[in-house]
Amino acid sequence: MKHTIAFLFLLFSLLSFSQNDSIISYGQNLIYENKLDDAISFYNSHLTEPQSPEQKIKLLIGLADTYKLKLDFKKTNAYLMEAYEEIERIEDLQLKFLYHVKMMEFYRKRGLYSEALDHQLKAEILKRNNPFADYYLSSYYGRKAALFSQHFGYLDSVVIYANKSLKLAEKVNHKDNIFYSKLELASVYERRGDVKGAITHFKDLLEYAKNNNLVQHQADVYINYTNALIKDNQLEKALQIGLEAIDFTKANDLLFNEIIVTINVYETYKKLGNNVKAYDYLLYRMVLTDAYNRKEHDKFLFELEEKYKLTEKENQIKISNLEIKNKNKELASNKINLYIILGLFLIAIVVTLMITYFLQKTKKSNRKLQLLSQENEFLLSEANHRINNNLQLVVILISDQLKKSSPDNAFQLKSILTKVDAISTLHKHLYKNRDKSKVDVANYLNDVKVSFFEVFKENDIQTDFKIDSVDISSDHAMYFGLLLSELCINSIKHAFDKEDSKTVNFRLTHKENRMYFNYSDTGSREKNKEVKPKLIDKICRQLKIEYQIETDNGFSFSFEKHITND
Question: Where are the alpha helices (DSSP H) in 299-336?
Fold first, then answer.
């Protein structure tokens, strides 16, 4: 009889799944297409009046998946916990199993493998004692393969679980699991040394992702594909795919993937010997990395907080369910009222003791968080110190090379030296500031000017710099510093011929939240010529500004930009 009930339960689940909820499917397709803001609006609109408790849970899980892709782990965790409360309320084993699979991936993605393994064990226990739909089992084996690949490195196990996931995914046409199962198998080829075989599989997966409009998946396979091409020394092909990947990730706002493929393009240019392009992409990667770090600045504190509050949250759910059951028993029979009252009294005592215990634990946790915060501040200080030392080392190495270089190469090295020095100077200002996100642009740009002192003196060039003192973001300051450095270099190199008076003028003024950038020199070499410096144009595109260049009377470069100091 027990087996018959289990069979009927599984049959009902499979039939329910085959009549796939069109609302959930539509939301999942929005996630596949990386329309994350649309997915959030869609899920929230249907959460107001869900058609069933099961649909409400799937909508909450869909929101969690969306915020996970947006790297907002705090909201991801909140929606998964809300889904867990609903699952416990309706006691749905299918969705409870799915919840543990989602938590496996949630922790694996963040590198918290012990927590991921804990949920994997809970899912495994449920699987041993209950039948589950192929759709959920496919996800479970796929996430288990990924966990074994990243944490344990057992390639044979990865192949076993990835093949299990693939077989079930193809049976129910689960595109997400089909893709990632094949991606794990292709990665095994690469790790076992069959790079050409891996390249063939990555190429097929790229087509699969394009044909099925799987945006995040396409970005993920780009990374593996370019890595494999670089390993196989197919550098021209790697460069083609890498540049295609950068355009794709940028167009779809996939910042993390854009950083990785930018690193691959940098490595490819470096191997091809194109150091100018390699430097451009190295600089671009630094900008992307800074944006990514700002996006994740509170992730560290959230993970610490989560470790101490997760157990408390699950216990509160259990207590709430126990209270509901006791109240139902009270309504069912007056005969057991006394026992219910005694039970509630005991529960109140237990709750009080638990609250006292958790309050004490919270105080201890806060003390630990304070200590960890102090330790993190110390480590950050050490990291800044080492970064500064490394930048100074680069300056020293270039300076040493400069002494040994021929006159033809000396100016190129000085050009690189001033750009590195501009970045080093910005870092020095940020390191001294309490607010690491802003810098006084006058102090910073005047320090940049100092780095040109000897070069200006050698070329008998006078300078007239007037810069308003105003705090601006570190991003804008860095671009202004690089822009000023490049303009000075171009003036020294290209502007002057045999003029009696050589002058470089620079004005940076701030009025009503607008910055006015005006640079000019009195050189005659570029007079009445059309000039469009490539690196300056790239920097201006990053700043999203329109600039003007005039050569009627020397060289003149100017632009204005709206900047607030909030």
Answer: 299-332
pLDDT digits (tens, 9 = 90+) for 202-258: 999 999 999 999 999 988 999 999 999 999 999 999 899 989 999 999 899 888 888
Residues 222, 69: Cα–Cα separation, whole Å: 17
Helix H or strand E segment including 550: strand 548-550
For residues 168 and 177, the answer to whether their CB atoms sit within 8 Å is yes
The packing angle between helices 441-450 and 407-432, to 10°, is 150
Asked if residue 214 lies in contact with residue 177, where contact means CB atoms within 8 angstroms, the answer is: no
Hey, what long-range contacts does 250-258 have (CB within 8 A, 24 or more apart)?
Answer: 252/34, 252/215, 252/219, 253/34, 254/34, 254/215, 254/216, 254/219, 255/288, 255/291, 255/292, 255/295, 256/71, 256/292, 257/219, 257/220, 257/222, 257/223, 258/288
Q: Rounded to an integer, what distance in angstroms lies between the CA atom of residue 404 and that of residue 410?
A: 9
Name 562's Cβ contacts closer than 8 Å, sequence gap at least 6: 513, 514, 515
Is the distance from CB of 418 to CB of 488 less than 8 angstroms? yes
Separation in Å, CA 461 to CA 110, 238, 328, 487, 558: 54, 45, 90, 14, 21
Q: Give 10-residue mean pLDDT values along the chain (566 residues).
A: 45 41 86 90 90 91 89 89 92 92 88 90 91 91 88 87 92 91 89 90 91 91 91 92 91 88 91 88 86 62 50 56 65 71 84 82 76 58 53 58 58 61 62 72 88 84 92 87 89 83 92 92 84 88 91 90 77
Tell which phi-psi region holds residue 440, choosing left (phi > 0), alpha (psi between -120 and 50) or beta. beta
Q: Taking Cα atoms as reference points, which of 550, 561, 423, 408 lies closest to residue 484?
A: 423
Q: What is the structure's pLDDT at 530?
A: 82
CA–CA gap between residue 428 and residue 389 (Å, rounded): 10
Contact yes or no for 239/269 (Cβ under 8 A): yes
- Supply 387's token pair: 């970064």
Count of other CB atoms within 10 angstroms of residue 178? 23
Q: Is 1 helix (H, G, I), strand (E, B) or coil?
A: coil
| Entry pTM | 0.51
Phi, psi of 473 (to 5 degrees): -65, 155
Write out pLDDT tens, residues 299-333.
544 554 555 555 555 556 556 566 666 666 766 66
Crossing angle for the helix pair 134-147 and 113-129, to the nearest 10 degrees = 150
User: How far is 439 from 434, CA to CA, in rounded Å?
Assistant: 10
What angle do the packed helices 337-404 and 407-432 form, to 10 degrees? 150
